[in-house]
Design brief:
By secondary structure, this protein is α/β, with parallel strands linked by helices. The chain contains 16 helices and 22 strands. Bound molecules: nicotinamide-adenine-dinucleotide, N,N,N-trimethyl-4-oxobutan-1-aminium and sodium ion (NA).
């Protein structure tokens, strides 16, 4: 498919079903990381806009056109959104590539996931109608108890830049399916496609206030959303330090949060892999896909000593073969990092690893053929010690560090030697061993003989410092529902007889 030439839309904040200029009229530049050029701008919301949006969301919940909808009615909106996203697929993929730097074909595949996700939550919204009220059997006949699953209320959704529209969808689709009214705050580094979702909602006639989209900086737009007293919940995906700030601020109001944070996930490779090339490719994909900016990247390769030399030789051959180019080029496999800040941060991780005694086996610098853009070569680091920063900290760039092991016990200990717990992968022909590792991995996701494939039906999320709560599947719907217990006394002609009845004169 030819990559389309497109017009860059200029939008305002999406509040109460319409485009509104921010109260303070500020805008932020949108930067293309492949060229370092400003290609557009986005509105910068502040606390004043947050307050207007929260009021619009609360009104939506009180109005019949949103607050009294059935799941089946909401499903129609979700399917209409999916259809419009699909209609605009090539254009949205191009916008995402220009804004984020990921290869165009990855962006297009993310848009396919966005469509599938809206459709999937449309199905779950419909199914919710029959599960809205369920009876809980009691041991007494004099009472009847029902459990109602109702929308949680006004929810704040704060998302990162690495999968801009997809991370937005992972939150918006279930929140709307559940019947909540939402305020989305996408990352200031890649907000363009999330703003287009506003236009799509307007076109499909989503009731005003059901979804509001506030772009802007974290401390100016995100922070007031978290501490707003009329926001019932915050669902956050982003870095650990921001997660801590959000949890701390939300705690002041006893506001529930779900946190999808970072990781330093292991990939354990045994010498009994099915095929050397297949195992090498999964190892590369696990770390270098999406320009290495994946929360679940399996960025610690834990390799059985017996195959280490031949595995690493082959891995380098494959790595040299990765095409690094402008992400709009059709066969690009590695584009630039998101920003100058991220580029400098990743180079610093590499130089610290070198200073701490590790070996840069491949890469470690910007590719020589690209003198503009935030590009870094795919990098492989060996002679790594478990005390080194490169072993312990999330890089969020195309950097793979390698450690070898002799025994299964040693491999498990190395895999779990991290404060994070998002993903973990094992490559081995021995399925009983894979089973043992599945149990032993301290993570929310396990991949066997692969790394990274993600579908919308199973749950997604981590443990330890990778956060808590689950997105995707039915689990995500639960994030946006209030469980209400309703207990009725049915033996109304029988006194309760707890107090002594006063005599009737
Ligand atoms: N676990 C997952 O599913 C998952 C998915 C994607 C990204 N991530 C993680 O996200 C990180 C990269 O994303 P990022 O750089 O956009 O993260 P970030 O924490 O810098 O920003 C995430 C979002 O939080 C907002 N924000 C920043 N400060 C805030 C504050 N004080 N209050 C409220 N909101 C605030 C930002 O504007 C942005 O919208 C990585 O650590 C990565 O692992 C995790
Ligand atoms: C599963 N995906 C598509 C890699 C998205 C993961 C979100 C974290 O970066
Ligand atoms: Na950008």
């Amino acid at each position: 498919m030819a990559i389309p030439n497109i017009r860059i839309p200029s939008r305002q904040l999406f509040i109460d079903g319409e485009w509104r200029e921010p109260v303070k009229k500020n805008r932020l530049p949108a930067i293309n990381p492949a060229t370092e050029e400003i290609f557009g701008d986005i509105p910068a919301a502040t606390a004043e806009d947050v307050d207007i949006a929260v009021k619009a969301a609360r009104r939506a919940l009180g109005r019949d056109d949103w607050g009294s909808t059935t799941g089946a009615q909401r499903a129609k909106y979700l399917r209409a959104i999916a259809a419009k996203v699909l209609e605009r697929r090539p254009e949205l993929a191009t916008l995402e590539t220009i804004d984020n730097g990921k290869p165009w074909f990855e962006a297009a595949s993310d848009i396919d996931d966005v469509v599938a996700c809206f459709e999937y939550y449309a199905d779950l919204a419909e199914a919710l109608d029959s599960k809205k009220k369920t009876e809980v059997k009691l041991h007494l006949d004099s009472f009847k108890t029902h459990v109602f699953r109702e929308p949680l209320g006004v929810v704040g959704l704060i998302t990162p830049w690495n999968y801009p529209l997809l991370m937005t969808t992972w939150k918006v689709a279930p929140a709307l399916a559940a019947g909540c009214a939402a305020i989305l705050k996408p990352s200031e580094l890649a907000s363009i496609t999330s703003l287009e979702l506003g236009e799509i909602c307007r076109e499909v006639g989503l009731p005003p206030g059901a979804l509001n989209i506030l772009t802007g900086l974290g401390h100016e737009a995100g922070s007031p959303l978290v501490s707003h007293p009329d926001v019932d919940k915050i669902a956050f995906t982003g870095s650990g330090p921001t997660g801590v700030k959000i949890m701390t601020a939300a705690a002041q109001l006893v506001k529930p949060v779900t946190l999808e944070l970072g990781g330093k996930s292991p990939i354990v490779v045994f010498d009994d892999i099915h095929d050397l090339d297949i195992a090498v490719e999964w190892t590369l994909f696990g770390c270098f896909w999406t320009n290495g900016q994946i929360c679940s990247a399996t960025s610690r390769l834990i390799l059985q000593e017996t195959i280490a030399p031949q595995f690493l030789d082959r891995l380098l051959e494959w790595t040299k073969n990765i095409k690094i180019s402008d992400p709009l080029e059709e066969d690009c496999k590695l584009g630039p990092l998101i920003s100058r800040g991220q580029y400098e941060k990743v180079l610093k991780f590499i130089s610290t690893a070198k200073n701490e005694g590790a070996t840069i086996l491949y890469g470690g610098d910007r590719p020589q053929h690209l003198n503009k853009g935030y590009y870094i070569q795919p990098t492989v680091i060996t002679d790594v010690d478990t005390s080194m920063e490169i072993w312990k900290e999330e890089v969020f760039g195309p950097v793979l560090c390698v450690k070898t092991f002799k025994t299964e016990e040693e491999a498990i200990a190395l895999a779990n030697d991290t404060k994070y717990g998002l993903g973990a992968a094992i490559l081995s022909k021995d399925l009983e061993r894979c089973e043992r590792f599945t149990k032993a991995f301290q993570s929310g996701i396990v991949w066997i003989n692969c790394s990274q494939p993600c579908f919308w039906q199973p749950p997604w999320g981590g443990k330890k410092r990778s956060g808590f709560g689950r997105e995707l599947g039915e689990w995500s719907l639960e994030n946006y529902l209030n469980i209400k217990q309703v207990t009725q006394y049915v033996s109304t002609d029988e006194p309760w007889a707890f107090y002594k009845s006063p005599s009737k004169l």
